Amino acid sequence: MKFFIPDLRDDPEAAELRWARYVADSPGLPDSRRIYSLTYEHDGDKYLATVGDCRKVYKRRTGPRGGYIKNADHVGWATETGTMISAIIDGGDVLHIWSYGPPFRGWANPSMVGRSEVRSIEYFDPPSS
Known about the structure:
Distance between the termini: 16 Å
Number of domains: 1
Number of strands: 7
Order of helices and strands: HEEEEEEE
Shape: elongated
Number of helices: 1
Structural class: mainly beta
């Protein structure tokens, strides 16, 4: 996938400037990589974060009346949460997810995901030299 920032798809130079600002505003990420899509788990739920889409959450299956089921898998349908994702930065131990708009349902901007929570990553193609 070729790198883009959703609101700047037609302006690659502006997208590069915005990317540089995101990296500068994300402390400790000098050698960052550009992520297109990220799947991670947090507090038992599975999340899918893709640039250009809203974050999606797949809740863990529960028993009757919401009861706990040991080793339960996740439901097969997602619920959108938060606003559209504009960029995801791989900074090593911590990944930063940048979204548009004001904080929504408790999501910080950027929200941070620890490497141990990551299940899969799809990177953008490397920038051409």
